Amino acid sequence: MPDVTVSIGGRDFQVACQPGEEHFLRAAAALLDAEAEPLVQQMGRLPEARMLLMSGLMLADKTAAVEDENRQLKEKLAALQARPVPSPEKVEVPVIPPQVFETMAEIAARAEALADRVEERAQG
């Protein structure tokens, strides 16, 4: 079982852990140290037990707040997932009758014929 030295509130502690868990232990100690440092800076040197207790309580308070927020978000997600799926929106696409295409083709043909006549007169 490896021993890991962690620093919390400016004090070193030897802690044993399972092989391969050293990284997790260091990460947890860093969280605790982040809570202990402001305490030590504000109050000066505290007894070890009091520093660890207060740091642990502050960290537990943050954890409880995150768990509460997580619970609320899960409830919101469940409510959203429980909503009925809205029916697809119906979109009507107008269909152009075939006669319109025929009429447009006739108009285009007449316009081309007129353009040809105008061109012939302009050249002639």
From TrEMBL:
Transmembrane segments: none annotated. This is Cell division protein ZapA. Pfam families: ZapA. It comes from Pseudotabrizicola alkalilacus. The keyword Cell cycle applies. Coiled coil: none annotated. InterPro entries: Cell_div_ZapA-like, Cell_div_ZapA-like_sf, Cell_div_ZapA_N. GO terms for biological process: cell division. Keywords: Cell cycle, Cell division.
